[in-house]
Amino acid sequence: MKYNKYVFYVLAFLQGLVFYSAVAMLYRLERGLSASQIGIIEGIHTILMVMLEVPWGYLGDRIGYKKTLLLCNLLFFISKLMFWQANSFFDFLAERLLLSVVISGISGCDIALLDNSIKPQERARVFGVYRMVDAFGCI
């Protein structure tokens, strides 16, 4: 448990490395999608992500935060492989639907497990570093 915060720092940095985000729309356009299809996919992704927040929170409480995070990070990796191999509207939609499941599953469980792993007097510093590392990954 005492090393969890360091594992979370590494994971936050790696998940922040969304190196393809700047060219994802261009990639999708090159693969034959229109801008309106991309907008539809992103809209569905956002709606589903919000709808799954509460069910994932309940499931995370039931099966444990660690198992939930392991499952979601495995699915996160699979979604990146799906993005790389996608060639059609439905391929990209499937990738974003899986990503909706992943993001809503990770959201909250990461903070809850991290909070359970640290002393109360460390909270401000640990969460500050956690968010900082996540932001550095996005640069």
UniProtKB/TrEMBL annotation:
<dbReference type="GO" id="GO:0005886">
    <property type="term" value="C:plasma membrane"/>
</dbReference>
<dbReference type="InterPro" id="IPR011701">
    <property type="entry name" value="MFS"/>
</dbReference>
<keyword id="KW-0472">Membrane</keyword>
<dbReference type="Pfam" id="PF07690">
    <property type="entry name" value="MFS_1"/>
</dbReference>
<dbReference type="InterPro" id="IPR036259">
    <property type="entry name" value="MFS_trans_sf"/>
</dbReference>
<feature type="transmembrane region" description="Helical">
    <location>
        <begin position="7"/>
        <end position="29"/>
    </location>
</feature>
<dbReference type="GO" id="GO:0022857">
    <property type="term" value="F:transmembrane transporter activity"/>
</dbReference>
<keyword id="KW-1133">Transmembrane helix</keyword>
<keyword id="KW-0812">Transmembrane</keyword>
<keyword id="KW-0813">Transport</keyword>
<feature type="transmembrane region" description="Helical">
    <location>
        <begin position="35"/>
        <end position="56"/>
    </location>
</feature>
<feature type="domain" description="Major facilitator superfamily (MFS) profile">
    <location>
        <begin position="1"/>
        <end position="139"/>
    </location>
</feature>
<feature type="transmembrane region" description="Helical">
    <location>
        <begin position="68"/>
        <end position="85"/>
    </location>
</feature>
<dbReference type="InterPro" id="IPR053160">
    <property type="entry name" value="MFS_DHA3_Transporter"/>
</dbReference>
<dbReference type="InterPro" id="IPR020846">
    <property type="entry name" value="MFS_dom"/>
</dbReference>
<protein>
    <submittedName>
        <fullName>MFS transporter</fullName>
    </submittedName>
</protein>
